[in-house]
Fold this sequence. Notes:
Blueprint: H1 25-53, H2 59-81, H3 87-105, E1 114-116, H4 118-124, H5 128-134, E2 138-140, H6 149-173, H7 179-198, H8 231-246, H9 251-268, H10 280-292, H11 300-327, H12 336-350
Antiparallel strand pairs: 1-2
Amino acid sequence: MNELVPKSEMSESSPLTDDEIPGTPAEYLGRVLLCVALVAVFFAVWMVQLPGVADWSGRAQRVFPRQTVFALSLFVILTIQGCRASNRTLFISGILVALGLMWTQMFAGQFEILKLDTDMISQVSSKTHTWVRADGRVFFHARSDLASVGTALLLLRFECALFTAVLFGTWLGRGAWNAWHFVALLLFGAVTDVWINWFHIADGLNPSALTPALRLPFFPALGGIAGGPGIMDIIFVSAAFESARHFRMHMLSLVLGALAGYCSGSLLGLEPIPGWTYLSMALTAFGILAAAWPDLKLDSNSVGKLFLAVSLLILLLASLVTIQHLLNPLPDRHLEEEFRVRDLANALRSVRPSILPM
């Protein structure tokens, strides 16, 4: 056949194949509680190490925390999807944790505790032009007191964000029954990641705004450490993994491809050089496609549908950016006092140490 189909037929009324046994509510609840406990332990271990992690300077060290968060996300994805819960269960659970995410976001000021003025931004972040243009102040998730209320809220928000992405991604992947659907999910994730990072959609400085919720609040963008993955990254990876189950793809190969791609994207996203923060999901999609390629077969009709779907998404995102610029135009470039810190930092980076005054 020219197009990949599941090895066993699926009925339109059920997302499960004939040889899959739906999980019981008790099994689903047990898997969720196991993942909740594991995420809490992961969070506590990293929070204890947070003051020292901020001083890490090696390239591999700076992406290691971000990579561990992504690996944890993959474990949660595989654990939840292994239960084979119903679509109704996934959707209702996703709605509940999404409401929890929005509720905790209103209290973001409780755990975003470090506020710096413009003359200090260049010492901790290379996104000076973004921060200065937005507000002139910057917040980091940098609380090291494990007994504080803010830390508990940060953990709750982290849990809600992660499970929102996994549950909705799994629910979305149930509808991907054709090969081009699987590829489209990965390309949608890559395009969305470029849109969010290129235009700094999730980099707002208002702690209670909803757009910063598009990024997992942990691991924090502290010092030179790479920030946590985006929620949309986890959603589309979860959807692609769920779709891959329909096609009996080798799951270990997909996991290794996703980890390799995301690690490469994280290294290329380190700032200030090279600073390509918009390539994480694109390289992850490439890694997953490379692992799944022996099982993928696309005819010309499927390729045309894939191209049309991705083009429509690009047009939609471009329209949103255009509307945003029309409603909220950027300030004029002549405000030199707002860009003084960034320009000075860039000038100092371009000077070779050999010609600096002794």
